[in-house]
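Let's do one together. I've listed all components of the complex below, 307 residues spread over two lines.
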Amino acid sequence: MAYSEKLIDHYENPRNIGSLDKNSEDVGTGLVGAPACGDVMKLQIKVGPDGLIEDAKFKTFGCGSAIASSSLVTEWVKGKTIDEAETIKNTDIAKHLALPPVKIHCSVLAEDAIKAAIADYRAKLSVKKDESKEAAE
Amino acid sequence: MDHFARLGLPAALDLEPAALDRVYFALQRQWHPDRFVGRPPEERSKASSEAAALNDAYRTLKDPLSRAFYFANLKGIEMPTDGKTIDDPDLLMEAMEAREALHDAETAQAVEALAAQARQDIQCALGSLGSLFLANDGAVIRKTLLRLRYLDKFAEEARARHTNLERVKA
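Okay, and this is what the predicted structure of the assembly comes out as:
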């Protein structure tokens, strides 16, 4: 099977590997898994005061396509708003990396991971709002 | 015909390995292509498809883990298929931490300790399935099977890493 240059590049030089403090209130963490192959992927975003994603990190234990997909997503989301980041589709990832059909599920995993990270960040934000509302009352 | 029926065994989680071998080898002799040389083409083709189905049944039922997945499927437990993702936080946290520990393990001995723990966890989870099926608790069975998938994957990764570390040493 021939893999694209972009895929191999992301696999051999993955961007943004690492972790952010998951307890920090400006960090959203998405943890998802593909049970069929036993892959697990963690993707985190740090949102700045201006509402833009200022940092993104990932840790993926899985095949090369899963690593490349999550690496690419961390690169794409930086500088975007969370609403923009939320529109990333697995088909965009698969197309960019030219994933073979059997590896499409890796791009689904990366899409679900960024969505989960955004959902986690939003949940933290709404707790914060509730708390400040209570404090004001 | 399901794999248990094909081998003339009752559908069950627990199988005596020796009993499975016995029925398999007896049936395999019965359908062996060598016995059908010179027979009409329909019979030869029937024999080869029976032999293939027997192999498939044996392979699936021999391994306790694949047998558990197969048995669950017969009982109507649906597992996420390829392309579906899960977000069970406890399971994924456990899987992530285990894989990180394996990634950080520097010696064959450290890797072996992690692998031994995984094997023990697999035995323990497999052992719990019997009573879960008796209680017919679909949600917990599904959760346990998913965990087994991850533990199995971990054990496989640990074996690969162990081999690599041994090779570097040699």
